[in-house]
Amino acid sequence: MNSDANDGWHLVLPLKPLALAKSRLAAATGALLRPRLALAFAEDTVGAALNCARVRDVVVVTDDPTAGAALAALGARIVPDLPAAGLNAALEHGVRSIRERRSHARVAALNADLPALRTTELARVLDTARKFPRAFLADAAEIGTTFLSAGPGIKLEPAFGGASRLRHLSSGAVEIRLTGVDSVRRDVDTGEDLAEARALGLGPRTAARWLPAAG
User: What's the domain range around 178?
Assistant: First the structure.
């Protein structure tokens, strides 16, 4: 087997320009704090992912210069969103950038809005995903998807957005049904989501920006 398959996971995180990210969160946070929180979510997600022993590297696909600089400082590799054709095109572009360097890389897409992400829970998801050619984890609502993986030589075939859980099931990806991985499933789009993430335990950057404002 090609050694690339055994040396850890390569994660791809897509991130919109901060001015456009997390628009539904503004009602709870206000317009000024919203983009700063969107960046904090991504920083906490990337930080936790890079601290996971199963992860070799993290690629962030974004055209936002502020986010790119902040996430590169954490150790992520920044790839411009050259397709500029939406979330799934960005993910496929990120995977190509990885496999151009390591043709048999084991890859996974991960949402960039997981501010409560725990490295131990991500490791459990990654360990389970290794058992299947393609696998995914549904979000907390069991409607969307927060994680999708593809083994060596396998296309990722991302179908994120809206009711993506059913689309990933229909595409043949195996659904990961683990308990105790709530932090990997808790993406944040609304104030209610943020409250649930807070109950799980926010990462340091999100906590620093949100807790003083939330009181």
Answer: 3-209
